[in-house]
Specification:
It contains 6 helices and 8 strands, in the order ββαββααββαββαα. The chain is 31% helix and 23% strand. It has one domain: Transcriptional regulator MraZ domain (Chemotaxis protein chec). The strands form 2 sheets. The protein has a 6-stranded antiparallel sheet. Strands 2-6 form a two-stranded antiparallel sheet.
């Protein structure tokens, strides 16, 4: 796995759908784009998915190539391959980061998330996600809180890393 994204940030969305990629994310995008060189715009792929997905998942070029390679290893014509091609290749948008560190989120993607004035970015390992801030607070943050509440007060999440089944 390449470099890992870290952090979270809430950023403004302008009338044209431009959003600034958090500064901590930009070097990872550059380093994980094999064709990037100084002065060139680094590329990434936004996977927006079906109606159930209420966030955008942003993949570096290296990471989406890993996904594409795994899909290509599935039997041609299989239902699983067709569905994964649809989800990761069809329901995606290749884009690049401009010289000011911004990307443009097309109206279709802003409408899908109901993004208006702000977008919430959060690291997710070798990808990062873009959410409507209120949706993230209501869904994902609630999930994390409920999960942590299942453990005792002195619980250390690092102990899960050594568990054979992850929990």
């Amino acid at each position: 796995m390449g470099r890992v994204f870290r952090g979270e940030s809430t950023v403004k969305v302008d009338a044209k759908g431009r959003v600034s990629i958090p500064a901590l994310f930009r070097p990872v995008i550059q380093e994980c784009d094999p064709s990037w060189t100084a002065g060139k715009q680094p590329e990434l792929v936004i996977v927006y998915g079906d109606h159930r997905r209420d966030f955008l998942e942003c993949y570096t070029i290296e990471t989406i190539q890993e996904v594409d390679e795994k899909i290509a290893r599935l039997p041609r014509g299989s239902k699983q391959r067709r569905l994964l091609e649809h989800m990761f290749q069809g329901q995606s948008l290749p884009t690049s980061v401009d010289e000011t560190g911004r990307i443009v989120l097309p109206a279709k993607l802003r409408k899908k998330l109901d993004l208006e004035d702000e977008a919430f970015f959060i690291a997710a390992g070798d990808t990062f996600q873009i959410w409507k801030p209120e949706t993230y607070q209501a869904k994902r943050l609630t999930d994390v809180t409920e999960w942590l509440d299942e453990f005792p007060e002195d619980f250390d999440p690092l102990t899960l890393l050594d568990a054979p089944d992850g929990g």
